[in-house]
Amino acid sequence: MTSTLITNIGELVTNDPALGDGSFLGIVHDAALVIEGEQVAWVGVASKAPPTDAREDVGGRAVVPGFVDSHTHLVFAGERSVEFAARMAGERYTGGGIMTTVAATRAASDTALRAHSSRLATEMLASGTTTIEIKSGYGLNVPDERRLLEIAREFTPETTFLGAHVVPPEYASDRDGYIDLVCGEMLEACAPFARWIDVFCDTGAFTAEETRRILRAGVTAGLAPRLHGNQLEHGPGARLAVEFDAASVDHCTYLSDADIEVLAASDTVATLLPAADFSTRSPYPDARRLIDAGVTVALATDCNPGSSFVTSMPLCIALAVREMRMTSAEALYAATAGGAAALRRDDIGRAAPGARADLVLLDAPTFVHLAYRPASPIVARSWKGGNVRG
Ligand code: NIG
Ligand code: FE
User: Fold this and answer.
1) Reduced DSSP (H G I as helix, E B as strand, rest coil) percent helix, strand, coil of the chain, to 5
2) 11 CB near ligand 1 (under 6 Å)
């Protein structure tokens, strides 16, 4: 197996406190790192680096773990710029546009969906994202939900069945009939292509009781739970996520003190989606309040054509720092180790021996530039499983 030394790293963020300066980011200055096959084999100060087959000098720039985007809806067709423009002119986001995307997606060929998803995945990699989760939810019938997951699987093992995104109009007068379908035939067709089950538990989507029923069915079929919750209003999402020991509850725009207390005492991550709050002109969640209470926080893009047509994790980091009272260090941690926790993975989200060699080289001396220089192309390159990409 070939070993490659990446050396002259001005600032290496490992996310392993034992490796670096003692902070939770585990920063090593004047560092080097050895990649062996798909993994990180060694990390330390450059002067102590072991001999390797190959060597690359990155000129004093910063290296951070690859971003883990634990919440995307990447497989869809069409776009909804008209809706976005109307929102910026004062209209409220309700999730009502989901059916516009469902119609476009149902009408699209596999080839078109695959090509579009691939374009977005390439954009993500170019901005430093090395792991993505992808949800279904724009099919909302058995063949289309299954097909979206089959395509999603070509991009990532982190696929999520979201048949319970909204009730499609053909079931408007028979909600229970749709939920029966989701928990029965649709789940059976989709489970082989999914790791997770998700429900949009919010005003205008699914109630607490409906969410319980769907999550129970998913868990029985071998899927692990995660939830969309507390996006549009205060509601039961966060508490339900904890009740099911869900890996994550996502959005968390409206959280009560009681929700935060319950989350803090659980293993459920609060995944914040600042680009969705940006694109829907919603309030930003107060991440400071969550972190100070002891909740694990992740950042993700929520990439979808309705509430967040955003692929850039650096933008999410910048918004989190500027608008959600996170420090630059907390935001980077949330976009890497936080995302890994939201996917219950310990092989990603850190740059330490044994972890996957998923890394990002920044055209900057420090990770702080991610928020300090928003919209500048400071991601120089990514390594995914040890291979140079993006
Ligand atoms: O995460 N909240 C529900 N689903 C997506 C939005 C879907 C859409 O508007 O198309 C979200 O924001
Ligand atoms: Fe979402």
Assistant:
1) 35, 25, 40
2) no
